[in-house]
Every structure is written in structure tokens, then in C-alpha cells.
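Sequence only, no structure available. Ideas?
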Amino acid sequence: MTKLKWGMIGGGEGSQIGPAHRLGSGLDGLFEFTAGALDHRPDAGREYGQRLGLAADRSYGDWTEMLAGEKSRQDPVDLVTVATPNSTHFEITKSFLEGGFNVLCEKPMTMTVEEGEAIVKIAKATGKICAVNYGYTGYSLVRHMRAMVARGDIGKVRLVKAEFSHGHHADAADADNPRVRWRYDPAQAGVSAQFADCGIHAMHMASFVTGQEVTELSADCVSCLDVRVLEDDAMVNFRMDGGTVGRLWTSSIAIGRQHGLTIQVFGETGGLRWSQEQPNQLYYMPLGQRLQVIERGEGNLSPEADRTSRVTVGHAEGMPLAFANIYSDLAEAINAQKEGRAMDPAANLYPRAEDGLRSMSAVFAVAESGKARGEWLDARPPMFR
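Reply:
I predicted one. C-alpha cells follow.
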């Protein structure tokens, strides 16, 4: 099979997210890194791109140059990943969709609900793929969890409990560090800090696993360090369109927590529990029976899990492989589009522009509810009400 051509905007030398995307996109041999505008400094971006193996004429100085260059080619990239500062996501994603390119955008997809609705409409009008990198949904056992819920293994879902907590911003002496401070500054971060950064991953995962969307919520947002304007801890109660009750906690001051993304789902006939720090085990408790441990890599779990497990049982698979599963989904979607066929249903799980829009609407609802001392608010974007 001919490799698809992949391009990246952002993710330059020294970035955290760039290597994860380059590893994930290339892991299965489905994409070839072909073009990039990797740095806000044109010369540095061109030089770094060529060191990574890009041809000189496809290592661009900025994203506008890359858009013009790729549009003029007979062999343009098949997918563009946008991994630039948050405030630039909307303009770049919009421009590449309108230019006829498929896009994978880092979250948040946009900074406002109105921009999110515009991206959804543009993606629909152009017929191009617009995905958002909620990469934790790429984990094999998260997908198996979703499959178990969908096939009724735990009956009707009653309650979902999600957490994403860490303690890396708990040190008051470090609060004025510029690398930390900006996250809690409304002028730079927007209306929310910890929920928008981490909590939204937990909320998206709750929707992904249950197959339900958040309709309303009530939030308690606090700044435990009084020098901060935006929240470093939040508790969110929510309701979903299938009747499920939701509870979510997110924090950046939880000393002892490292990367505490966990999800639990409780149904009429069983419960499920998964943690991102131990991603190769899924705990399943059928009603009235013993606790079962489902191991990633076991055979014949579900099509969704089987296609996303690469190494034998007992060997760890981490976050870069979760990213690789998102890229594998996108490769299948692009190839199906090119070939005029339906895509593999087990791969049709990548987060869409609609997910990015719902997430941004939830961020604004959490911020508003927090200011109103927990008032229940509609969490849906206007176009989905």
C-alpha cells in the first residue's frame, strides 16, 4: 500500500507534542512525513525540518507558505496536523480545510464556541476530515471498554465517574514561574485553566466510552493558590443524553498524583474501571461475580481492541501508541474516501470536529457555572440544542 503524505504545523525542536505526533504518525508505516512548517521562526523551522528529512522545498517557513506550496503541487499532503499555540488553531484549521486538506488539530480546536461551530460547518461543506486529538481515546482498552458498554455487557449505564488530576502545579513557590503562570492567566489561557487543560479529556472520555453526550452541568471551580485567577481544581456534576449521571474531578494541586486520568462506568449489571497510568489492564466486575482483569493483547476481545494492539500480552503500550491508533483511524478514513468505500467500523473512532465543539461549549459552561456557584447550565453548543 502506498503511504499517505503527512504534514505538520508546529511541533518544532524542543516541543513536547512534536515528537509524539511524528512517532505516532509513522509507527504503522501508513504515513510518510512529507512537509512541515515547524517553528514560528522561519529559518529555524526550515532548518529543523530538513534535519528531520524533509526536502528543502517542503520545509516551509510558516503555515501560509506551506498552504500555498502544497496547494500548488500535484502530490499535496493527505493530512495536516496542527500543533501550534491554542489561539492559532482556528485560523490554521479553517484555512487548510477550505484549501481542500484533511486536518488533525490539537485540542482545543478553537478558543470560542462560535469558532467551533464555524469549523464544523466548514468541514461538512468541504467534505474534508477534521479530527481533534483527544489522544487518550486511542488506548486499546479504552476502545474495548466502549465496545463492552455498546454491546450491553454491563447493562444500561447509570453512572460514569472520570478524573484527571496531578500535583505538578501545587508548589506555591513555583507559582510565578512563567511556564506555569500563563496557564492560570485569562489573557493567555482563556476562561478556564485546569478544566480546559485536563478535565476536558476526562469529560470527552466519558462521552466516548458511554456513547452519550453531556447535556447540562454544574461546576465548583476554585483557585487553591490565591495568586491564581483561574481554577487549579474543579468538581463537575453532569447529565448525559442517555440518562447517565456524571461526576468529574480535575486538579493540578493533588500532590502524589502524577497523571491521574481514570474512568469508571457503572451499569445495571456490572462495572468497569481503567487508569491511564496502568493502561494495559481493564477491571470488570459483573454483578454478583468475582472481579475480572482484562489484559491488553488478549485475543478476541473486540474488533476495536484487537486492531489497536500491537505487541504481545504483558508488554506495555503507552501514549505514543495511543496516538498511533488515532493516525491509523485517519489513514483508514482517508483511504476509504479515496477508494469510494465504507471505512472499517472498528476504525471509525477518531474524535471529530463535533467533539472539539462540544468540548469548547463545556469549557465555557464550566467557567460560567463556577462563577455562579454551581448553577446548572446547558452544556450543549447552540447548533446542537
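The CA atoms of residues 60 and 208 lie 36 Å apart.
Hope that gets you unstuck.
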